[in-house]
Amino acid sequence: MKTVQTDKPVTARHKPLSVRLQRAGLQVFYYIVMSVVALLFLIPWMWLVSTSLKPPEQIIEIPPRLFPNPVMWINYWYGITSINFVRYLFNTLVICGAVLVGRIFSCTVVAYALSHINWAGRGILFAIVLATMMLPGQVTMIPIFIIFSRLKWVDTFLPLIAPAFFGDAFFIFMMRQFFMSIPQELTDAARLDGASHFDTYWRVVMPLARPALATLIAFTFIWTFTDFQMPLIYLKDRALWTLALGMQGYLRRYGATGTAMGAMMAGATLYTLPMIVLFFVAQKRLIQGIVTTGFK
Amino acid sequence: MERARGPKRPTWSKMAQREFVAGLIFSSPWIIGVLVFLAYPMLASLYYSFTQYDIPQAPHWVGLNNYVKLIAEDRFFPKSLWNSAYLTAIGIPVQLIFALFCALILNLKIRGQAVWRTIYVLPTLMPAVAMAFLWSWILNPQLGLVNHLLKLIGIKGPLWFNSPLWSKPSIIIMQTWAVGFMTILYLAALQGVPKELYESAEIDGAGSVRRFFSITLPMISPVTLFQLITGILWSLQYFTQAYIIGLISTGGGGTSSLGAPQGSLLFYGLYLYIQAFEYLKMGYASALAWILFLISAVVTWVILRTSNRWTYYDVV
After folding, report:
1. Is residue B161 part of a domain?
2. Which residue has the higher pLDDT, B120 or A259?
3. N or C: which end of chain B has fewer CB atoms below 10 A?
4. Under a CB-based contact definition with an 8 Å cutoff, are residues B127 and A244 in contact?
5. Which homologous superfamily does the CATH classification assign to the domain defined by A74-295?
6. CB spacing of B126 vs A272 below 8 angstroms
7. From the list B105, B143, B300, which residue is nearest A64 (CB)?
8. Does a structural domain hold residue B247?
9. Residue B147: which CATH number?
10. How far apart are alpha carbons A187 and A200 in whole angstroms?
11. Which of A132, A140, A255 is the closest to B252 by Cβ?
């Protein structure tokens, strides 16, 4: 890169032409890099949608084409029917809904105890939250499975739902961080006015916590909706499958061959769609959430 | 931590007692959760790891047998360790560097930042199963897009997921496509670096490369530390995509397809799953789980211990 000789530091406004030209050149260069990387990110999406709309012979065609002709919307119908999409979507949403209820309740209550109640165990409990936040789930997976299978809960949604009612270190931490930003004076005042802790939690803290709740909801939904391993372990009965399992079942039955590919990609597109919608609805909250949990 | 008032006194006031009870009640879901879903399972799996426990039979004590067998006899154990080490040691740095690169260009003064950011982040949201479908198709040796593009510039593309040599690099490519969350975190970190630092460095005559290495990297190092640890822990449990791609490359077959081709995608998390839920060898799998726990703990500890040499905590 060229360096420009100046005898005094240039201010933002008045710069020599050479500097401005260099800046403009740099700007163009930035846009080019930006677009190339963006294209790398976009091509797989285009390939996904393109394949999902191709007739079988164009799927195995060489060289491949980007724009299918004719456009096979019917692949989406094949995908929906052969994956049993509606049924599995329903199951997935039932699980997501129940997990959401459990998480919202359990994580906020605990976070309240860790932020707006002054009690002896608070420090220790928060230390436990921090220590267990990183614990790999696969370490505890086997005994938990054994507990649930003794309870005869295998092939029900309960093993996927019940743990959500007992908190989650990651989200407790996130909510607690948010609750700490709500002034103690506010909750103290409510308490002095004779409000119980539950009232303070429900009427003072929770209404203020909406942004953080939105983050919790968005992440919980994404992770539950896309989860594969837990449903795989607990749901053997096809009627109870989630979408992730349904997709896998389609793969096992039809294989990843050229003819099955159109419907499969259509299914994958439909399965991804809710996540994209969610992203556009909750973009700000998601980004906020990643940032607050990442910065400690 | 907050001011702790009251409860330290030897005789508790009525108030402190009431607060203690309230604290206990409000945190009871998590206290139960820790006991039932963390403490008990940790101890139980430690116990199971010393037993032979082929469900539905009851566990019986075999001492260190499982561990001895893992280390001395099981050839899949070192293989899965190697595969996961590969994925972690190469994949995580590649992802971090690429995410930082993306964050740097997203941080440029450029029009339509929200649109660019969306494009860069969206892949992260694709469900793992769908992602495995899509990428095994993109990297299909005969019909895939990538090998077609390579052929256009005169390169014969590899077999990607079907080749034991290329399957792990293929996984890394796929995961690097989906680094959006890492990128966002880096972007936020970059935006948190005080502008004055750059300005004074510029006046002192530091070029942009120098500024990057002397200001940017140290200032965002806490975020790098966080992402490194979470990335490694995630990578050690890598499961879904490996499971699905194993199915695809063997045409949707049975258990034998797991970790295909030739066990090159038999990652640690996948092997643990196979032992526990395909072979139903809960004792043996518990030994694997505890080794996973120890590895995770040691790696995290080592990184945290050595991190003060390369992380810079001051602002933020």
Report:
1. yes
2. B120
3. N
4. yes
5. MetI-like (1.10.3720.10)
6. yes
7. B143
8. yes
9. 1.10.3720.10
10. 6
11. A255
ipTM: 0.89
Q: Has residue B177 got a pLDDT over 70?
A: yes
Q: Which of A4, A8, A41, A276 to mutate to test the interface with B (most CBs of B within 10 A)?
A: A41
**Blockwise average pLDDT, block size 10, chain A, 296 residues:** 46 70 85 93 96 91 87 93 95 98 97 94 93 90 96 96 95 93 92 92 93 91 96 96 95 80 94 93 81 63
Give the Cα separation of B80 and B82 in Å (integer). 5
Q: Interior CA angle at B245 toward A265 and B232, to 5°?
A: 115
Looking at residue B298, its amino acid is: V
- The answer to whether the CB of A159 falls within 8 A of the CB of A234 is yes
Domains in chain B, number? 1
pLDDT of residue B236: 95
> Are B7 and A119 a contacting pair at CB < 8 A?
yes
pLDDT at residue A1, as a whole number? 40
- Using a CB-CB distance cutoff of 8 angstroms, which residues of chain B are in contact with residue A163? 33, 37
| Residue among B27, B124, B290 with most chain A CBs within 10 A, to mutate | B27
Task: Say which of B181, B208, B243 has its CB closest to residue A290.
Answer: B181
**How far apart are the CA of B236 and the nearest CA of chain A, in angstroms?**
9
Give the number of A-B residue pairs with CB atoms closer than 8 Å: 288
Give the nearest partner residue to A37 out of B38, B102, B247, using CB atoms: B102
What kind and span of H or E run contains B52?
strand B51-52
- 3-class SS of residue B181: helix
Of A114, A136, A167, the CB nearest to B237: A136
Provide the residue range defining the domain that includes B204: 75-307
Angstrom CA distances, B209 to A76, A152, B205, B213, stand at 50, 61, 12, 6
Quick one: pLDDT at residue B206? 83
SS3 track for A203-224: HHHHHHCHHHHHHHHHHHHHHH
> Does the pTM exceed 0.80?
yes
Is residue B18 assigned to a domain?
Answer: no
In a domain, B29, yes or no: no
Domain regions of chain A by residue span: 1-52, 74-295
Whole-angstrom CA distances from A204 to A183, B27, B229 are 11, 18, 36
Q: What is the pLDDT of residue B69?
A: 95
**Among all residues of chain A, which has the CA nearest to that of B174?**
A44
- Distance (Å) from the C-alpha of residue A179 to the closest C-alpha of chain B? 13
Contact B177 A118 (CB under 8 A): no
Residue B313 phi, psi (nearest 5): -105, 115
Position A290 scores a pLDDT of: 75
Q: How far is B19 from chain A (nearest CA, A)?
A: 6
